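Problem statement: downstream parser choked on a complex file, so we are re-checking the raw output for the iron/sulfur cluster run. The parser issue turned out to be on our end (a line-ending mismatch), but while we're here, posting the original submission so the record is complete.
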Amino acid sequence: MKAVVDPDLCTGCELCADACPQVFHMEGDVAVGGDVKAEDEDAARLAAEDCPSSAIEVTE
Ligand code: SF4
């Protein structure tokens, strides 16, 4: 699974990086996702649901 952040939608609130640092990190004012390990999938999905800007897309 992958988690991709749309930099045009991300407001840099850092919620995802705080909630799920194993997947998301900040690069300046924008969050960046990446490959999601099996044990982190639930946390990544939750971070996507909780993103106030709906900027995170998770793909299988
Ligand atoms: S939760 Fe959403 S808006 Fe906030 S930093 Fe993460 S991707 Fe950006």
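For whoever reads this later: The chain has two helices and five strands.
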